[in-house]
Amino acid sequence: MKDAERLVFRRVMPAPPARMFALWTEPTSIRKWFGGEEVEVAGAVLDLQPGGAYSITVRDAAGDSVISGRFLVVEVPARLVYTWKLEGPMGATAETTVTVEFRELGAGTELLLEHGPFPEPPIRALHAQGWENCFRRQLQLL
Amino acid sequence: MADILHSVPIKASLKAVYTAITDPEGLRSWWTTDVEAEAREGSLAVFGFEGGQVQMRMRVKSLSPGKAVRWQVEEPTPPEWEGTEISWDLSESDGGTSLRFAHRGWKSTENSFAFINYSWGYYLLSLVKYLEEGQGFPHDKPG
Q1: Considering the entire predicted model, what is its pTM?
Q2: Do A123 and B13 count as a contact with CB atoms less than 8 A apart?
Q3: Which residue of A18, B36, B64, B124 is surrounded by the most CB atoms within 10 Å?
Q4: Is the dihedral of CA B12, B18, B22, B24 positive or negative?
């Protein structure tokens, strides 16, 4: 994956990896942090195992969109790799891959997230804003 | 009345083109880096040029995701922009997007009309470069 097509985030979160992993994978938690102020999570279904499918439905002014994919790696509480496809009022994006790692750092977690490839810059920017919103909302929950 | 019209084929998805003309980060990447805007009907989008000395103020009249965007130019406007409207119409074409741009309602084709026509062509090419190659050439704040 070309660097320019990839999103990379590093965040230090004030909770241990087990708590972060749960926040990331429990539907009730996901509904609280996924999306942003103007995006409501209308549903989240996860089959948390390698090969298992997930889908998250989000609702905003433009209508409903579904983010779905499959888990490729599930290592509790350290690592998650899953595919990601966004289908909405403007059609579907090409499949991308999310890798998220939770590393113990003192009493907290060093969170590393990679997402891509995004060959289209505006779509990359849109996802960058989306993840920033997610991290901000996660911090409010911790 | 006179209208400025441009038809622009772009090798990018409808969603990418729509985002580039509605999302502030997208607008910053090809028109001007000085942008205050949100993708919401009824909002006011302000585009600054020359360190904020020149401002284009657009009321976002309508947003149809993946289809169309309408801006009404608001006062105070640069000379001759008063009462004009800008529209962006998108459609899928050959796996990419066909953009039809219009800046309508000019009272005269004297004075700045021809330059603004040139200017839209210049920035629409910047939009294409941003979408197809990842790098546009927006107006940048001095300093």
Answers
A1: 0.88
A2: yes
A3: B124
A4: negative
Euclidean distance between CA atoms B38 and A25, whole angstroms? 31
Judge if ipTM > 0.90: no
Do residue A90 and residue B18 have CB atoms under 8 angstroms apart? yes
Provide the residue range defining the domain that includes A117.
3-141
> Roughly what angle, to the nearest 10 degrees, separates helices A121-141 and B14-22?
70
| Interface with B, mutate which of A67, A120, A131 (most B CBs under 10 A) | A120
Q: Is the distance from CB of B85 to CB of B72 less than 8 angstroms?
A: yes
Query: Distance, in angstroms, between B1 CA and closest chain A CA?
Result: 34
CATH classification for the domain delimited by B2-133, as one of 3.40.50.720, 3.30.530.20, 3.60.20.30, 3.40.50.150: 3.30.530.20
pLDDT tens-digit series, residues A94-107: 999 999 999 999 99
Assess A36–B contact: CB distance below 8 Å, yes or no: no
Could you read off the pLDDT of A23-78 as tens digits, one per residue? 999 999 999 999 877 788 999 999 999 999 999 999 987 789 999 999 999 999 99
